[in-house]
Amino acid sequence: IFRKADRRGLGIGFGQHGRLFLSVDWATTDNATAKIFVLGREKNAKPVQLWFNRFPYDEGPDFQANSVCKEGPVCERIGVETLKLATLTSPEIAALNRETPVVIPIAALEQHGSHLPDFTDSLLVVEVVRRAHEHFRSQILVLPVMWLGNSHHHMDFAGTMSAEPRVYLDLLCGIAQNWIDHGFQRIIFVNGHGGNDVPGRQAIFELRQRFRERENLLLLMATYWTLAEPTTTVEGLTQSAMGHAGEWETSMILRLAPDLVKNHNQVSPVEANDQFAPAAHGWTMPDRSPNGHIGYPADATAEKGEAMLQCFAEGLTSFLWRALNWEPSGDQDCPQ
């Protein structure tokens, strides 16, 4: 039992072959007491280890697992509240538990039609990661965004920057291996650009083969908009999928930086039809859209943008929670 008002985090250690089920029932009073009930545990499980630690956060779930350093909780050990690589010193990073997940946002700098900035993908993935990281400030290390992506299909439009596809694949492998060489065991690419999906998947596949003897190595890549279903939670959406510089991205940029959106309500829609789907189809953006966008930018609103950012952040939070609680062997089921 612990008090919500005290902002205490609950850490859980799962037995290698065991599963612990918890239910949290908050009372309705202002100074509510959380009651944690152990509902069940598999037979022959190793003892479940529980520990309580102070966890500084401003918002987010009251129920959180606590990452630890070599000698105690991260925040107490190194004196910081948020694990961001850009603000940490080398000794502070060296003090981290090597099971701390390392999140690497990857995106692009490429054209987004006549109405959105070229940095759209990077702006959005950074915001989604930022919101999710609020729930894991001292538990997950977040790197600065890798803004250069695989964007050759946009090179017909001014301002696009792109790494050669095979160079980009090697770049991702190299970035991940840097952290593996530092001893970290959980490497997660969070992607914000469709063109990065194939090389990102290939990178983690190749790395796993390279380190196939490592049972304690978790390599993941996820595109943030595939981790949630905004069409089921956001009202009034015209598009059923992301598109490019369409309703979804335009709405989210309207929420984050409305001054960067130029006359979106005057942009005509472009359908996302592909007569060869679901087959892979080699294409360039002019093959699909002469103006560089796909979707319905004129239907975008800041209200839709906020709802989608929240939806995607919740999806990413659930994904990171699973990565945080992953076990190298045995039963790998994790709480959602």
Describe the structure.
- The protein is α/β, with parallel strands linked by helices.
- The chain has eight helices and eleven strands.
- The chain has a four-stranded parallel sheet, sandwiched between helices.
- Helix 6 crosses helix 8 (about 300-325).
- The radius of gyration is 21 Å and the shape is globular.
- The two termini are about 20 Å apart.
Short description:
This protein has 336 residues and is α/β, with parallel strands linked by helices. The protein contains eight helices and eleven strands.
Spell out the blueprint of helices and strands.
Layout: E1 2-3, E2 8-13, E3 20-26, E4 33-41, E5 49-54, E6 68-69, E7 72-73, H1 74-78, H2 90-94, E8 102-106, H3 120-133, E9 141-142, H4 165-181, E10 186-191, H5 197-210, E11 218-223, H6 247-256, H7 285-288, H8 302-324
Parallel strand pairs: 8-9, 8-10, 10-11
Antiparallel strand pairs: 1-4, 2-5, 3-4, 6-7
Helix pairs in contact: 3-6, 3-8, 4-5, 6-8
Q: Please give the largest β-sheet.
A: 4 strands, parallel
- How much of the residues is beta strand, in percent? 15-25%
Distance between the terminal alpha carbons, to the nearest Å? 21 Å
| Low-pLDDT segments | 1-78, 330-336
Q: What's the overall geometry? A: globular
Characteristic key phrases:
globular, disordered N terminus, 3-stranded antiparallel β-sheet, alpha/beta, disordered C terminus, 336 residues, 4-stranded parallel β-sheet
